[in-house]
Design goal:
By secondary structure, this protein is mainly α. The protein has helices spanning 2-5, 9-16, 18-35, 40-57, 64-78, 81-92, 98-127, 143-158, 181-190, 192-222, 228-259, 265-285, 290-305, 310-317, 324-354, 361-404; strands at residues 133-135, 139-141. The chain has a single domain (2-161, 181-404), classed as Growth Hormone, Chain: A. It contains 16 helices and 2 strands. Helix 4 (40-57) packs antiparallel against helix 5 (64-78), helix 6 packs across helix 15 (324-354) and helix 11 runs parallel beside helix 13 (290-305). It is globular, with a radius of gyration of 21 Å. The mean pLDDT is 87.
Length: 405
């Protein structure tokens, strides 16, 4: 793609991150509002069709801006998923099991990422066997275009599977109409310290997480000399195993801590992940050999995934039911815009314009990881007392609603 479309590392990072993230976040809030009153299953199905279609169309891109516009369409489609999914899961499961339930749902991110690397490496090896493929109705097709078709087209059929999922009954609804946006914003302002520390804490954690997801395969190929197929297979298998394991363990530990009386368990899990991951992330990217780097990649993937079940569970825990979709969309807005929009691009900018050498990619990754994970840990630690206070406020709101009813 870099050769055919004339794109630099910075340009590729914008396609992976910012062009997707801006539209993902902008459309997430109105779609989150819809999720508070409309069929969440239907919203997800429509989004699934949309992002699969635009992924397929990426195979027809003829330049950076063409591909950027199509990536925006992918972002719009994917914005439908998580606000509706978090809302549905919160109605499927009681509060004491939500962190585990959302963790299981969130394993899809790491299963998908791992499969993308494993199958992507295999498909890339197959597709690269010919410089140009001749496809019916399409004509001459480059290997990278063939991969977009292979990834996008099945999604157009898989969207129908959403209609095998039951739409759950909404729990604890004070009203069947969505509250006015000003009411949602007023509730968030009342709990502003909790929302700021939580949302920006996980967002800075995600700067490193998205940066690793975007550039670790490149690091192994560029610095350690692995082929794309070898990189995809080895890193993909690690992600397939350690990512889901990490996110489920994080959710299970959060629910266990909550059963022991730690009301801020979900925030604590996020803080533990940020503190524990920093030294391992630095050792992984700066490892002198591919063997050591791969061994360190295992705990790195575990800790990278560790907080992403507890983080959305924390949001659903402090919001009234009729505001959860919008609160989840706000969480995703900040997390994606900062994490995905800034993480991969910050690493690329340091590589292109500060260190000025492709081989110095590990130092770019180490610099960004140190800054972002330190900020994340400080914010999350500062947010623990306010999170407990927000839980008390919600309990009071529910008590007043019950009394009024």
């Amino acid at each position: 793609m870099r050769r055919d479309l004339g794109i630099t590392d910075t340009g590729m990072s914008l396609l992976m991150g910012l062009t997707f993230a801006v539209f993902y976040t902008l459309f997430g809030i109105p779609l989150g509002r819809l999720a508070d009153t409309r069929s969440r299953r239907g919203i997800i199905a429509a989004g699934f069709l949309t992002w699969s279609l635009f992924t397929t169309l990426c195979g027809f891109a003829r330049g950076f801006w063409h591909l950027a516009l199509l990536r925006m369409g992918v972002g719009i489609g994917e914005a439908s998923l998580s606000p509706s999914a978090y809302s549905m899961i919160s109605d499927y499961f009681p509060p004491e099991r939500r962190a585990t339930a959302i963790s299981v749902y969130s394993t899809g991110i790491f299963l998908g990422n791992g499969l993308a690397m494993v199958l992507g490496g295999i498909v890339l090896k197959f597709a690269s066997a010919q410089a140009v493929w001749i496809l019916p109705l399409i004509g001459a097709t480059r290997p990278w275009q063939l991969i977009f078709f292979a990834v996008g087209l099945p999604g157009l059929l898989c969207a129908a599977l959403l209609f095998t999922v039951r739409e759950p009954r909404r729990r604890e609804m004070r009203s069947h109409q969505p509250p006015p946006l000003r009411e949602v914003l007023a509730y968030m302002r009342t709990n502003s310290q909790t929302f700021l520390c939580h949302n920006f804490g996980i967002a800075f954690f995600s700067v490193t997480a998205y940066g690793f997801a975007a550039w670790m395969p490149t690091l192994f190929m560029r610095v350690h000399g692995w082929s794309p197929a070898e990189t995809g297979l080895k890193l993909g298998l690690c992600t397939l195993i350690l990512g889901p394991l990490g996110i489920v363990c994080g959710g299970r530990l959060a629910d266990h801590l909550k059963s022991l009386g730690y009301r801020d368990a979900n925030m604590r899990i996020m803080l533990i992940a940020a503190v524990a991951w920093l030294p391992i992330a630095l050792a992984c990217v700066l490892a002198p050999s591919p063997t050591i780097a791969l061994l360190l990649f295992l705990p790195s993937q575990f800790l990278q995934a560790f907080p992403f079940g507890a983080a959305p569970a924390a949001i659903t825990e402090i919001m009234p039911n009729e505001m959860r979709g919008q609160a989840a969309a706000t969480y995703l807005f900040i997390n994606t815009l900062i994490g995905l929009g800034f993480g991969p691009t910050a690493i690329a900018l340091l590589t292109d314009y500060v260190y000025r050498a492709d081989k110095l990619l590990p130092y770019s990754m180490a610099t960004i990881s140190t800054c972002s994970l330190t900020i994340a840990a400080l914010l999350l630690f500062h947010g623990l007392p306010s999170f407990r206070l927000s839980l008390d406020r919600l309990r009071l709101v529910k008590a007043c609603s019950t009394t009024t009813g």
